[in-house]
Amino acid sequence: MHHAPTLGADPERPLYIVFVGAGAVGCFYASRLHHPSHNIHTSLIARSNYATLAANGVSLQTHTFGNYTFTPSSVLPSPSAAAAAPHPWDFVIVTTKALPDRSDDATLIAPLVSPTTTILLIQNGVGVEAPYRRRFPSNPIVSGVTVISAEQITPGTVRQNRWTRLHLGPYSHSADLDAESRVDSHLESLGLAKAHQIGDYWTRLGGIKDVEISDELDLQIIRWHKLTINAAFNPSSVLSGGRTNADMVSDPELRSHLKGVMEEIWEAVPTILGGRKFGEGLASPERILKSTERNVGGRPSMLVDWEAGRPMELEVILGNPVKIARGRGVRLGRMEGMYALLRSAQGRRDGEKGKGKGKGKEEGKL
Ligand SMILES: NC(=O)c1ccc[n+]([C@@H]2O[C@H](COP(=O)([O-])OP(=O)(O)OC[C@H]3O[C@@H](n4cnc5c(N)ncnc54)[C@H](OP(=O)(O)O)[C@@H]3O)[C@@H](O)[C@H]2O)c1
Ligand SMILES: *[C@@H]1O[C@H](CO)[C@@H](O)[C@H](O)[C@H]1NC(C)=O
């Protein structure tokens, strides 16, 4: 390196970043990562809100940073439009909803991925990285887990209600979902270096104070711990007839069910993650239930998607964990039950829609 370390990218070598999925999470984190004066240039690939973003940028209403407008380097209508850029993309950051049963997003981003591209996923659930690793065997992949409360309230307007926590770590596994995990040490150290690089931009330039970088196994621990919350509350909210989290924990029968789901994952994790347990620092099921009592108002995203007739992240929140656990000889019985019921309910809903005109819209979105 000819240059002393600077705060931003190499002054002579611009850094190009593109987000795929310009929704709540994508717009918020992109807006904290666009620093042209430090030679970091961030673009968005948008779909339904493309016209609004192209005309006006993103309007952000944030709890952490106040209100501001984010004007990205470019707003692009599709991956193929982004692939026509006259430079390779250094980072492709995927912030779509993870819907592997509906959309193969690893194939979607293929035109954007050059041999030097780092792929970063910021999504809920587990097993989200595997399709990317299969499709891109030698690119660094960074796995991201965020604790944030954000929503796109109208097209092009994103509100962050609270939290900014972002955990990043490498994902090197060459294995399929249910095979023994195999960590590739070269890809792991490359991914770790990329996680540090981008995490540093978010922290030092973007002002996000709680970016944490972990190694591969620790990141998976964090991912599975976040799953205990998502897998317990999201499906139960739909199956209980549309109740909020705080409302559910006030019902003794539901509270015991939620605790059961969390404990089921808790007990299975050492078998799934090669002997590793959730550490002392991670909130216990009882603590999660207790803090949920105070968290009134918020509606779980799966309930919002269910009521809007949109696909739910069922596969990555229920299907993948159930299958990964089975591959290790563990049954997640409560989750298997919720998975079967919700998959069926979603299929019935969409089948009924197929007789009208809703189905065509869903197919059009693939
Ligand atoms: N929101 C939160 O508070 C929160 C918190 C923690 C974790 N997460 C996780 O973060 C991930 C993203 O969630 P989100 O809340 O940001 O979802 P979201 O607001 O629905 O945003 C997803 C965006 O991806 C776009 N998209 C999907 N497929 C696309 C494609 N093929 N081409 C271009 N754009 C595409 C969607 O466009 P359309 O409008 O055209 O559908 C939408 O703008 C999820 O895994 C979620 O579980 C969210
Ligand atoms: C941001 O905008 C919202 C909506 O217009 C408004 O309610 C809020 O007070 C604004 N916040 C700040 C810090 O200006």
Automatic annotation (TrEMBL):
Domain Ketopantoate reductase C-terminal, residue spans: 219-344
Q: Which GO terms describe its cellular component?
A: cytoplasm
Cited InterPro entries: 6-PGluconate_DH-like_C_sf (IPR008927), 6PGD_dom2 (IPR013328), ApbA (IPR003710), KPA_reductase (IPR013752), KPR-Related (IPR051402), KPR_N (IPR013332), NAD(P)-bd_dom_sf (IPR036291)
Domain Ketopantoate reductase N-terminal: where? Answer: 17-172
Q: Which GO terms describe its biological process?
A: pantothenate biosynthetic process
Tell me the domain of life: Eukaryota
Q: Name one GO molecular function term.
A: 2-dehydropantoate 2-reductase activity
Recorded hits in NCBIfam families, A to Z, give:
apbA_panE
Can you tell me which family this protein belongs to?
A: Belongs to the ketopantoate reductase family.
Q: Note the PANTHER family from the entry.
A: 2-DEHYDROPANTOATE 2-REDUCTASE, PROBABLE 2-DEHYDROPANTOATE 2-REDUCTASE
Instruction: Please give the name of this protein.
Output: Ketopantoate reductase PanE/ApbA-domain-containing protein
